[in-house]
Structure formats: C-alpha cells, structure tokens
Amino acid sequence: MAHDNPRSDDVHATVSRRLRAAAMRYSRSRRAVVDVLAGAGRPLTLPEILVAGTGYGLAQSSAYRNLGELVDVGVVRRLTSGDDHGRFELHESLTGHHHHLVCMVCGRVEDFEAPEEFEAGINMLVETAAQRGFVVDGHLFDMVGRCATCS
What we know:
The chain is an alpha+beta fold. It contains 6 helices and 5 strands.
C-alpha cells in the first residue's frame, strides 16, 4: 500500500496505537513488514516477505522477530497451510473479514470473501453455540485443494 493511500494511513495509525499500548515503538523494520503485508493481497511466507521487502533492507532475523511481535499485539496473523511454511497476513481487524483458498501442492494461500449467505449461516451456528454456553470469538474457513498452477 502506498503511503498516500488513506486506507494505508488508517492501518499505520491503528498499528502504531496497538504497539504503543504494548509499550513498543513502531520502528522502521516493523513499518516495512506492515507495508509488505498490506501490499501483498495474500498471506506471505517469510522468504516472500524478504523478497518483497528488498527495498526496505529487511534482514531475515529482524523480519522474523518483528513478525512474532506483530502477531503478539494483534497486528499480524500467522496461518498454516499444506506445506511446512507459516504464512503471515495483516490481522483481519485491519483488512476486513475474509477466508482462504489453500493449495495443498505448492502451499500458496489466496484470500477470498465468502458470500453473505455463507456468513449468515455461520451466524446461525454462532447462535447455536451461544445456546450451549460457548462464546465464539471468530471463525476461520479455508478451502483446500489445488491452485490453477498445480491443477
């Protein structure tokens, strides 16, 4: 995301607030990680973050440490997929609710939005859980298969 994009400014302001609340500063490295993830449009592996962040001068150890800290403060979410690589994306509180298409061959993960009817069905399930005394904080839905490249 470009810095002049109002949405980008909103994301950075929210990230800055969350880090301040955790007594952490919004360093250049953390901002670089957020910029890379915001511009990706899909969850990325650490190697993909490093390649996309080449212009920022991100070192692997710094990027990995910052990812862990950003996960801890609720800015980044770590996903697992069909391969051995964890993937990272901005938390949906920053990007909006979405789900994932996961390729079990290459491990690529793509974002997608489910139809409103699907989400309405999930809301009915949340109500059913509430009737049983269970408090639902959120839901995850991944479709697993093969991407167009691996089909």
